[in-house]
Design brief:
TIM Barrel, 12 helices, alpha/beta
Length: about 290
């Protein structure tokens, strides 16, 4: 099972039309773009997918559509998280898990639980989930950092917790997790720009935003890194680093949606409170994409 989540996973954006409805034609194009260019698995309804702005019915329709178009070609991970544990458990109960291989569950945001609170939150999720669970630590968005000690305790105590998407950017914290993790536990990067050095540390792959727009190049870099060919992998990393910075300059997913629009895959449309990136940022990104 864990082998399914090595390599490049992509946190899919949700394409919207000008009227802000979901653009299912663009969703299908994105699925084919990703799978056809070497992505190892799809991650649906994460932060990059603007899941907070979708209704429950929209989320279900989108997941079912992607599962259908994927047709079991690659594994599918669905984001299910929140800062009310009871509501998260209810969401798990309500999900149709056909075609879903794992859930990605972010640490509770805003209410800043203690490490014990995080442990109990995930313990409840694992007991409820019919599929494996991937932890997601992203303190820059949630306001709380899950320590290496808490991650390792969860990993050792619960065999159904199979991985962590570690997006703290703290290489020391990631090092402790890598050193002391159980045998069947993956450590996955959540930072596109740090993926290559983290691969050198021994991580198992990345759940990427940039991979939406550049799956072929980023997948190649990840595969080379996993093979230990850092000479060739670094060439791709250095070629992509300016684009990565530009994609995140005014936040995500605004930057990557602009890039996908430049590539002709979808409209550059987001739902409030998110808005498209500025004209100056879009112009710079256009030059980078066209000359990549």
């Amino acid at each position: 099972m864990i082998e399914n989540f090595r390599g490049l996973g992509v946190a899919m954006v949700t394409p919207f039309k000008h009227d802000k409805s979901i653009d299912f034609d663009a969703v299908e194009r994105l699925v084919e773009h990703l799978i056809g260019n070497g992505v190892d698995y799809l991650v649906v309804m994460g932060t990059t997918g603007e899941s907070a702005t979708l209704s429950a019915d929209e989320r279900e329709d989108l997941i079912r559509f992607i599962v259908d178009k994927n047709d079991e070609r690659v594994p599918v991970v669905v984001g299910i998280g929140g800062n009310n544990t009871s509501s998260v458990l209810e969401s798990i109960d309500d999900y149709n898990f056909k075609g879903i291989d794992a859930i990605l569950s972010v640490t509770p945001y805003y209410n800043k639980p203690t490490q014990k609170g995080l442990e109990m939150h995930y313990k409840a999720i694992v007991a409820q989930s019919p599929v494996p669970v991937i932890l997601y630590n992203v303190p820059g968005r949630t306001g709380v950092n899950m320590t290496a000690e808490t991650t390792l305790k969860l990993a050792h105590d619960h065999s159904n917790i199979i991985a962590i998407k570690e997006a703290s950017g703290n290489l020391n914290q990631m090092s402790y997790i890598l050193r002391d993790r159980p045998e069947n536990f993956l450590v996955i990067s959540g930072d596109d720009g740090l993926t290559l050095p983290q691969l050198a540390m021994g991580i198992d792959g990345v759940i990427s935003v940039v991979g939406n727009a550049f799956p072929k190049q980023f997948s190649r870099m990840v595969k080379l890194g996993l093979e230990g060919n850092f000479t060739e992998a670094s060439k791709i990393h250095l070629k992509m680093i300016e684009i990565i910075d530009a994609l995140f300059a005014e936040g995500s997913p605004g930057g990557v949606k602009a890039a996908l629009n430049i590539l002709g895959l979808m409209e550059n449309s987001l739902r409030l409170p998110l808005v498209p990136i500025s004209e100056s940022a879009n112009y710079k990104l256009s030059l980078l994409v066209e000359n990549f």
